[in-house]
Specification:
The structure holds three protein chains of three kinds. Chain A folds into two domains: 168 residues, FAD/NAD(P)-binding domain (3-Layer(bba) Sandwich), CATH 3.50.50; 147 residues, D-Amino Acid Oxidase, subunit A, domain 2 (D-Amino Acid Oxidase, Chain A, domain 2). Chain A is of the alpha/beta class. Chain A contains eleven helices and 19 strands. In chain A, strands 5-6-4-14-15-16-13-17 form an eight-stranded mixed beta sheet. In chain A, strands 8-2-1-12-19-18 form a six-stranded mixed beta sheet, with helices on both faces. In chain A, strands 9-10-11 form a three-stranded antiparallel beta sheet, with no helix packed on it. Chain B is mainly α. The longest helix of chain B has 13 residues. Chain C folds into three domains: 221 residues, FAD/NAD(P)-binding domain; 129 residues, FAD/NAD(P)-binding domain (3-Layer(bba) Sandwich); 154 residues, no CATH class. In chain C, 23% of the residues lie in helices and 26% in strands. In chain C, the strands form six sheets. In chain C, strands 1, 2, 3, 4, 5, 6 and 19 form a seven-stranded mixed beta sheet that branches. A seven-stranded antiparallel beta sheet of chain C has the order 20-21-22-25-24-23-26, with no helix packed on it. Chain C has a five-stranded parallel beta sheet with strand order 8-15-9-10-11. Chain C is globular. The chains are: A alpha/beta, B mainly alpha, C alpha/beta. Chains in contact: A-B, A-C, B-C. Chains A and C meet through loops of A and loops of C. Strand 17 of chain A pairs antiparallel with strand 3 of chain B, so a sheet runs across the interface.
C-alpha cells in the first residue's frame, strides 16, 4: 500500500470508481481508492439500477443525458470488454392528476432542449408500450425510449478495472479510521491498513458520507435512509420499459435476465443505517404492483433487501470541494439517483480536483443551501 | 475435478472454470462472484454452490472459510407469490 | 397477526421435541412444518436408532415419529400447522410463513428454529446429468413415495447416511455397485459398514469421483484413488457402470432464516460449517431466539431430540419463570454430554469447544484395534477372537457373538438380555461384553441391536452340523427347510445351509430372526443369508 497519495478516494461504489477513472484518465498519478467491504457493496450494488433522462430541471437532464452517453459507449470510453448489460427500452412515467400531467409537459420541453427523445403519451399509447398496464385513474404519461437499465456491479467493476489499468491503487476491505486536517487543510487519511499522506480526499462514501465528513470535522447536511427493494424469479420478456409513478409511488422494471425488480419510496422511514428487510414492504409492494401490473400477481418474489439512500436537503447531489476544509471533495447526497449520473459526477469531481473549469455549467455545491438556492427538482420518487 | 464442464451452480448453470477465472482475476468474495455470474441467485439461493465456491476461494487465496462464508440475509426464503402476500392481507382485513 | 408464546419452526425431531417440552410447561405453542406430516428426516428412517434406550434407541425412526405425533397431539396448547413454510424472521420479532396460499404473520414471545440441514454438493464433471441424486432425495423417493430411483447405484460418501441409504437401496431391490469415500477411513458407524459389506457391496476408501458418463442420463462414473494427502494418484482411474450416482457427502446447517435475525455465526467444520452461536441451553445471542437439531450441529437424531427438549425448556423458563424446569434441563445436558462422550463424539466435542471457547477436550485414547475394520468394514480375526467364548464353553451351550467393535453411543443390547448376560455399561459408549456364564444363546438380543451386529451360534451338537441365528431384513423372507446361500463378511457365498426356524412376529418389528443349519467350520464366517431366487 502506498503511504503517500495525490488523492485518496473513500468509497468503492459507482461514484468513487467513476471519479478514480476520470482522474486517472487526465493523468493524475498516485490515486488510492479505499473501500471498506467490496466493490459496489453499498447502495450501488443494492439499487434498482435504472437510468433515467426524464428529469424536470435542465441540470439534472444534462447530467443524466451526458451519463447515458457514457453508458451507451461504455466499452469504448473505458477501454473495457466488460458488458454492462445496458438495456434501453425506456422509462414510462405515469400521471394521475392534471397537475402531474402539466409537470410532465414542462419536463418534456426542458428535455427537448437537450435532445432527449421524450414524449407525452396517452393511456392508450401507454398500453401499447405495456399492454397489461392498468390505466385506471391514469390521465396519461411520459415516455423516453432511450432511458433504461444497466448492471451496477459490472459498471462499477469496469470503472475499477479501467482505473487500475491507469495506475489507481484500489484497497478493498480497508476502512477509513480518521482524517487528519491541519489548519483547515487535508493532511492524510488513517486507514485500517495504515496512514496515507495526502492533501486531497474525495468523500464518495454513499450511505456513510456523513461519518466521513465528521472525520474531517465537517457537519455535512446529509443523512441516510433505508429504501427497500425486491426481485422476482425470471420470466420471459414481457415488459420493456421501467414503469414509474411519482404520485402512486412505485418503480418497476424487468431486467434483461427476466426478473422484475421494484420498489417504492418509504413513508416515515427513520434516519439511520439499518438495511434489514421488512415484511411490511412485501405487503405494500404486492398491493401496489398487483394493482398497477396485474399479471405480476402470479410471479414469485425470490429476494428482498434494502440499501441506504444518502439524502440531501433538496434531494439533489452535492458535488463540490468544501469551503471550510481545503482538499476535502465530495460526491454525496444522491438521494437515490447516484448510479444513473455517476459518469458525469466523476467528470465533475475530476474537474474540481484538477482545478479545471467545470465541463458543464451546473450548480451542485454545498453553498447553495446557505444561498437559499436549492434545486427544485419536481420529478422524484 | 479439473474439467471446465463441471457445473457449480445448477440453478444458473455456472461452471467451475468461470468461477476459477474470476478468482484468478482477483474477484475473491462470494458477494462479488454472485453479482458477476448470478451464481447463487437462483431458486436455491446459493445453498448448494455457496460452500463449493467458498472452498475454491479458500484454496486459491488461503482466506479462512469463516471470512468467505458471510451469512446472507435475504428473505423470503423459498419465495412467495405476490398473490400469496395479498391473500394474507385480505385475510386480516 | 397470529400470536403465541412460542413459535417452533421445523417439525422434525428437534422441533417436535421443543414443542412438546414447551407445551408440557404450559406454553401456547405454534409448530410449523413445511411438509404435510410431522417428522422431518424421521419419516424416512426405517432403521433402528442408536443411542440410549431412554431416548428410544433400538426403535425405528418411523416408529419414533408415530410416538411423538401421539404425544404432541395430546397437548391441547400445542397447535401444529402442517404444509406451512417459514419465509422469514424479521427484526420486529414477526415471522412470516406460507400456508394454504397465504403469507401469514406470527408474533411469538420466543422462537425455536429447528430447520435442520441441507445436503452438500460435490463438483465433478457432468454432475448435472439426470441420475445424480442427493441421498436425501433417494431416501424420500424410496421410503416415503415407494419409488425406486434407479437399479444400479454408486454411492458417494461412507458416512452414516451413505451407508444406511445403501442398505435401504438393497432392501428396495436395487444394486449398489460401491460406496466410495475420499477419506482413508469409513466415515459412518462400522456396524453399518459391515451390514452392507456382507451384502457384497464394496467400499472404496481414499477414492473420489471424477466424472459421470452419459448423454441424457447417467450410465457410469470414473473414479480415482487418492493418496494420503488427498491428491489424485495419476493413472489410478477406474470406471464403474451405474444408472444413478447418489451423493451422501455431508450436510450443512440450514441457517438462512436466521440471516437477518441478528444471530451471530461461527464457521466450525466439525459442526457442519456455518453455525449459529449458542449456549449450552440452546440460546442464541438474540434474546428469545433458540435453536436445536442439525441447525446447531450436524448429529444423530437422538441429539436433535434432546436439544429440542432443551430449547423448549429454555424458552419456557424464560417466558414463564418460576417453574422448576432446571432439574430436567440439567438431566438433558447430562444425556447430551454422555452421547457425545465417546470416540465417535470427538469431532462434535471439539466443534462445541470452538463454539464456547473452552479448551479442546482431551482426545479419546487411540488403539489400532479397529484400523483394518475402519478401512474395510470387515472385522479382523483378532477382533473376532476377542468376542468369542473359550472352546469349552462353545460346546456346552449356544452363545451370542456381538460383532460390535467400535465405541459408539448405543445400549439397547444391555437392556434387552433377559439373563443380564451383557455387562452393564458405565458409559453409553462402552463396548458390550458378554458374560458367557449367563448367556444362554437365546437370541433375544439379535433383533434389538440397531447395528444388526449380534448373532448366536450353537455348536453344541456332535458331528459337522451347527446352527447360526442371524437378523434378516429383506424380501422374500426365507421359509423353514428352505436351502439358502451363506454369505461371509464380504458378501462372498461360502456354501449353503437349511433354514430351521424363522421368527417373524410383531415383536421382531420386521427384523426377521432366522436360524440356519450350516457346516460347523463356517459358524464364524457366515454373517448373512441370501434367499435363492426360484426361476
Amino acid at each position: 500500500m502506498k503511504n503517500k497519495a495525490s488523492v485518496v478516494i473513500v468509497g468503492g461504489g459507482i461514484t468513487g470508481t467513476s471519479t478514480a477513472f476520470s482522474l486517472a484518465k487526465r493523468g493524475v498519478k498516485d490515486i488510492v481508492l479505499i473501500e471498506r467491504e467490496g466493490l459496489a457493496s453499498g447502495a450501488t450494488g443494492r439499487c434498482g439500477a435504472g437510468i433515467r433522462q426524464q428529469w424536470g430541471t435542465f441540470q439534472n437532464c444534462l447530467l443524466a443525458r451526458e451519463s447515458m452517453k457514457v453508458f451507451e459507449n461504455f466499452q469504448e470510453v473505458l477501454g473495457t470488454d466488460i458488458d454492462i448489460e445496458l438495456k434501453q427500452k425506456g422509462y414510462l412515467l405515469l400521471a394521475y392528476s392534471e397537475k402531474e400531467m402539466d409537470q410532465f409537459r414542462r419536463n418534456v420541453e426542458v428535455q427537448h432542449q437537450l435532445d432527449i427523445p421524450s414524449r407525452l403519451v396517452s393511456c392508450r399509447e401507454a398500453k401499447e408500450i405495456v399492454p397489461f398496464l392498468n390505466t385506471e385513474k391514469m390521465l396519461g404519461g411520459a415516455f423516453c425510449p432511450t432511458d433504461g437499465h444497466a448492471n451496477p456491479f459490472l459498471a462499477t467493476k469496469a470503472y475499477a478495472k479501467a482505473a487500475e489499468r491507469l495506475g489507481v491503487e484500489i484497497l478493498m476491505k480497508t476502512e477509513v479510521k480518521a482524517i487528519t486536517v491541519v489548519n483547515d487543510r487535508i493532511k492524510g487519511v488513517h486507514t485500517s491498513q495504515g496512514f496515507i499522506e495526502t492533501d486531497k480526499v474525495v468523500n464518495a462514501a454513499g450511505g456513510w458520507s456523513a461519518q466521513i465528513g465528521e472525520m474531517a470535522g465537517l457537519h455535512l447536511p446529509v443523512y441516510s435512509e433505508r429504501h427497500e427493494i425486491l426481485v422476482t424469479e425470471p420470466v420471459n420478456p414481457i415488459m420493456d420499459p421501467m414503469v414509474m409513478s411519482f404520485s402512486y409511488n412505485i418503480y418497476c422494471q424487468q431486467t434483461p435476465h427476466g426478473s422484475f425488480i421494484m420498489g417504492y419510496g418509504p413513508q416515515n422511514e427513520p434516519r439511520g443505517y439499518n438495511v434489514n428487510a421488512t415484511w411490511q414492504f412485501l405487503e405494500t409492494m404486492a398491493r401496489k404492483a398487483a394493482w398497477l401490473l396485474p399479471p405480476l400477481k402470479n410471479m414469485r418474489i425470490v429476494r428482498q433487501w434494502a440499501g441506504l439512500y444518502n439524502m440531501s436537503p433538496d434531494r439533489q447531489p452535492i458535488v463540490c470541494e468544501s469551503e471550510i476544509v481545503k482538499g476535502f471533495f465530495m460526491g454525496i447526497g444522491f438521494s437515490g439517483h447516484g448510479f444513473m449520473i455517476a459518469p458525469a459526477v466523476g467528470t465533475l469531481l475530476a474537474d474540481l480536483i484538477t482545478g479545471s473549469p467545470l465541463t458543464w455549467d451546473v450548480v451542485l455545491d454545498l453553498g447553495r443551501y446557505d444561498r437559499h438556492e436549492t434545486i427544485a427538482e419536481p420529478s422524484v420518487v | 475435478m479439473n474439467d471446465d464442464k463441471t457445473i457449480v451452480c445448477r440453478c444458473e448453470d455456472i461452471d467451475i472454470e468461470t468461477i476459477r477465472k474470476l478468482i484468478d482475476q482477483g474477484v475473491t468474495s462470494l458477494e462479488e462472484i454472485k453479482r458477476i455470474t448470478r451464481c447463487g441467485m437462483g431458486p436455491c439461493q446459493g445453498k448448494t454452490c455457496g460452500p463449493v465456491i467458498a472452498r475454491e476461494i479458500a484454496m486459491k487465496t488461503g482466506q479462512p472459510m469463516e471470512e468467505i462464508l458471510s451469512p446472507r440475509s435475504r428473505p423470503p426464503f423459498g419465495g412467495v407469490l405476490f398473490q400469496e402476500v395479498l391473500e394474507g392481507i385480505d385475510d386480516e382485513e | 397477526m397470529i400470536t403465541c408464546d412460542l413459535l417452533v419452526i421445523g417439525g422434525g425431531p428437534a422441533g417436535i421435541s421443543a414443542a412438546v417440552a414447551a407445551g408440557k410447561a404450559g406454553l401456547k405453542v405454534l409448530l410449523l412444518e413445511e411438509r404435510e406430516r410431522l417428522g422431518g428426516q424421521l419419516t424416512k428412517q426405517t432403521h433402528r436408532f442408536f443411542g440410549s434406550v431412554a431416548e428410544r434407541a433400538g426403535t425405528r425412526g418411523i416408529a419414533i415419529i408415530k410416538d411423538l405425533e401421539t404425544v404432541v397431539a395430546q397437548l391441547e396448547n400445542v397447535e401444529i400447522s402442517l404444509s406451512t413454510t417459514a419465509l422469514g424472521i424479521y427484526e420486529d420479532g414477526v415471522s412470516t410463513a406460507l400456508k394454504s396460499g397465504k403469507m401469514i404473520k406470527i408474533k411469538p414471545k420466543a422462537i425455536v428454529v429447528a430447520t435442520g440441514a441441507f445436503e452438500k454438493f460435490l463438483p465433478f464433471e457432468n454432475n448435472d446429468l439426470p441420475g445424480v441424486y442427493g441421498a436425501g432425495a433417494v431416501q424420500t423417493l424410496m421410503n416415503i413415495y415407494g419409488v425406486l430411483p434407479a437399479r444400479r447405484i454408486l454411492m458417494i460418501g461412507s458416512g452414516n447416511i451413505g451407508l444406511i441409504v445403501s442398505y435401504q437401496l438393497v432392501q428396495a431391490g436395487a444394486e449398489v455397485v460401491g460406496v466410495i469415500e475420499a477419506s482413508p477411513k469409513i466415515g459412518g458407524y462400522l456396524v453399518h459398514a459391515s451390514k452392507i459389506r456382507r451384502l457384497g457391496i464394496p467400499i472404496y476408501p481414499s477414492c473420489t469421483i471424477k466424472k459421470a458418463f452419459g448423454q441424457d442420463r447417467v450410465v457410469g462414473a470414473e473414479l480415482v484413488r487418492l493418496d494420503e494427502k488427498w491428491k489424485e494418484i495419476p493413472g489410478s482411474q477406474f470406471t464403474v457402470d451405474c444408472d444413478a450416482i447418489c451423493l451422501a457427502v455431508g450436510l450443512n446447517p440450514l441457517i438462512d432464516l436466521l440471516g437477518q435475525s441478528g444471530c451471530q455465526f461461527k464457521y466450525i467444520p466439525e459442526l457442519g460449517g456455518q453455525v449459529p452461536i449458542r449456549d449450552e441451553s440452546m440460546r442464541t445471542n438474540v434474546p428469545h431466539l433458540y435453536i436445536a437439531g442439525d441447525l446447531s450441529s450436524i448429529e444423530e437424531a437422538t441429539a436433535a431430540l434432546l436439544e429440542g427438549e432443551l430449547a423448549g425448556l429454555s424458552a419456557a423458563k424464560q417466558i414463564r419463570p418460576g417453574q422448576s424446569l432446571e432439574a430436567r434441563m440439567e438431566e438433558v445436558k447430562t444425556h447430551l454430554r454422555a452421547l457425545r462422550s465417546g470416540p465417535v463424539g470427538e469431532k462434535i466435542r471439539s466443534g462445541l469447544s470452538k463454539l464456547t471457547g473452552e479448551a479442546l477436550p482431551t482426545p479419546s485414547p487411540r488403539t489400532n484395534a479397529i484400523d483394518e475394520l475402519s478401512r474395510t468394514g470387515i472385522a479382523s480375526p483378532a477382533n473376532l477372537a476377542g468376542v468369542l467364548p473359550d472352546e469349552k464353553r462353545k460346546k456346552t451351550r449356544a452363545y451370542a457373538v456381538i460383532e460390535c467393535y467400535q465405541q459408539i453411543p448405543c445400549d439397547p443390547c444391555v437392556h434387552n438380555c433377559p439373563f443380564g448376560a451383557i455387562k452393564p455399561f458405565s458409559d453409553i459408549n462402552d463396548l458390550p461384553i458378554v458374560d458367557f456364564d449367563l448367556c444362554t444363546g437365546c437370541g433375544q438380543c439379535i433383533g434389538r441391536c440397531p447395528g444388526l451386529a449380534i448373532f448366536t451360534v450353537d455348536e453344541t451338537r456332535d458331528g459337522d452340523r451347527a446352527k447360526i441365528t442371524l437378523p434378516y431384513e429383506f424380501l422374500p423372507k426365507p421359509v423353514r427347510e428352505e436351502t439358502v446361500d451363506l454369505l461371509d463378511r464380504s458378501g462372498k457365498c461360502v456354501g449353503q445351509g437349511v433354514v430351521k426356524s424363522v421368527l417373524n412376529t410383531p415383536k421382531q418389528d420386521k427384523t426377521t430372526i432366522v436360524t440356519v443349519e450350516i457346516h460347523r467350520n463356517l459358524v464364524q464366517d457366515v454373517r448373512q443369508i441370501r434367499v435363492v431366487q426360484k426361476s
